[in-house]
Amino acid sequence: MAQTSTKRTKKARERDLVHGSLPAHFKALAIPAGIGMLFNTLYNVVDTFFAGMISTDAQAGLSVSFTVFFILIAFGIGLGQGISALVGSAIGANRNKVGNDTASDDEKQTQTTEHSSEDITSPKDIAAPKDISAPKDISAQGLSFATLFSFLLCLAGYYAIPHLLDLLGVYNGYRTLAHDYLILILFAAPAFMIAFAANGILSAQGDTVTNRNALIGGFLANCLLNPLFIFGAFGIPGLGFDGLAISTVIIEWFVAFYLLSHALKSRAMAQTRLSCFIPHLKIIKDIVAQGAPASLNFLTITVGVFVIQYFLQPFGATAVAAYGIALRIEQLVLLPGLGLTIVLLPIIAQNYGAKELDRVRYAFWWCVLTGIGMMLVGTVLLLLGGKFLLGLFTPDQDVISVGFDYLILAAPMLPAYLTLFAMMSFFQGIKRPIWTVWIGIYRQIFASAGFAALFIYILNWNEWGVWTAVFASVWSGLLLSTIILIIVARKSIQGLGGPGVLRVYES
C-alpha cells in the first residue's frame, strides 16, 4: 500500500502540459513554484535579518557577498533551465508521437477540426525539433555534468573571489566578512549545482511541488541554524557572521539529496541505468548549448549588480546596505509573477516540442497579462508600505530613507520586469536562448553603466542617479526585448499574435 501511495503522489506531481486547460496548468504549477520562491526569498531575508543583529557592516558584507555568490547561482539556474527546456521538449515530442500513433480516427478528425478553427498558422508548417534524445538520457547527462562542473567552479572560485571583491571596489571594513563568507559557501557549490539540475528534470515534467517542499524545509532549517551557529548554544560556539555561511552549506546539501532522490524516481528517469551517467559528448553539448545562454543571461544580471554596487561604493555602507535590503523586498513582491514566468518555460517547451503552437501563443499572453495584473498590486504595495517593510530589517533611519528612494522607482518597474521574464522563458522554451544573453548584456551592462555615469557624474544626482539608472535600463531593455521577440516569433512560430489570441483560443 505504501508503494502504491507513493506512486500516486509522484503521478499527481507530474503533469501532461500538452493537453488540458492551460490556466489550470499555470495555477497547478505556479502556486507551488511561487510558494517555493517565497520561502527561498524568505531564506535570504532571514540571513539579512540576523546579519542586521550583528552590525550594519555585516549587512553590507552580506549584500556584497550575494553579488559574487550570484555567479554560482547563475551557472546553476542556467543548467537547470537548459535541462528543463530539453527534457520538456523531448517529453512533448514523445507524447505527440505516441498520440499520433495511437489516436483513433474520430480523435484525429476532432483534432483536425480544432486546429482548423483555432490555428493562427498550422503547426505542420513548422519543422519538428530534430535529433531529440530520450528524456532519461538528457536527465542523466545533466546530473553528471552538474557534478563535474561544480568541482571546477569550486577551484575557480577559490582563486577568483579576492579579484571579484577588488572589481567591486570593496576595500573597507566589511571586505573580510564578505571574503570569508564566500570561501565557506564554496563547500556547497556541488550541492547547488546538483539541486538545480534535479529541479530542472522535475519542473520539465510539471512537478514544482517537490522543489517547493525542499525550499520550505530549507527556510525552516535556516531559522533554527542561523541563531545556533551565529550566537552558539547547546555546546556549539558562536561563530558570528561565518555562522550564516555554515548554515547554508549544511542546508543546501540536504536539499540537493532530497531533490536528487525525487528526480531519480521520476518518469523522465524511468529505466535509467548507470551507463546513462557516463559522459556523452553530444548530449552534454546540447545541454551546454541550451544552458550556457541562460547562465550568461544571469551572469549579466550579476554584472549588472556589480555595476550598481560599484557606483554605490562612494556613498558608503549605508547606501550599500539600503540597496541590499530594498532588493530583498522587491524580490518578495515580484514572487507571484516570477512563479508564473518560471512555469511558462516547461509549458512552452512541451507544447513547442509537440508542435501545439496555439497553446504556445496562449500560454505566453495569459502569463503576461495575468502577471502584469499581479505586479500592479505590488506597485501599490511598495509605494504605500515600503518604509514599513524596510523598518522590519533595520532600525537605521538613514538606511530606511535611502532604501525607500530606491523602492519609489522600483514600484513602476515591476510590470516591466514581469514582461521581460516572460520573454526570457519564451526564448528558452522554443530553444532560442541566445537572445536572452544579448538583451541581458545591453540592459545589465551597457545601459546600467551608461545611465549611471550620466546621472551621477554629469547630472550629480548622487544615490538617485543609481536608482534612476536602474529604472532607465529596465524600460529601455523591455523596448529592445519587444522588438527581438516580434522578429524571433515570426521566424520560429510564425508570430505570437496579440492578447486577442486568448479570446480566439478560448472560443
TrEMBL record:
Keyword annotations: Cell membrane, Membrane, Transmembrane, Transmembrane helix, Transport
Molecular function per GO: antiporter activity; xenobiotic transmembrane transporter activity
Name of a matching Pfam family: MatE
Transmembrane segments: 21-43, 63-87, 142-161, 181-202, 214-237, 243-264, 294-312, 332-352, 364-386, 406-427, 434-458, 464-488
Cellular component GO terms held in the UniProt record: plasma membrane
Principal place of residence: membrane
Compositionally biased intervals (Basic and acidic residues): 105-122
Region (Disordered): 98-126
Localization in the cell: Cell inner membrane
Bilayer topology: Multi-pass membrane protein
InterPro entries: MATE_fam, MdtK-like, Membrane_Transporter-Flippase
Protein name, entry field: Uncharacterized protein
Species annotation: Kiloniella litopenaei
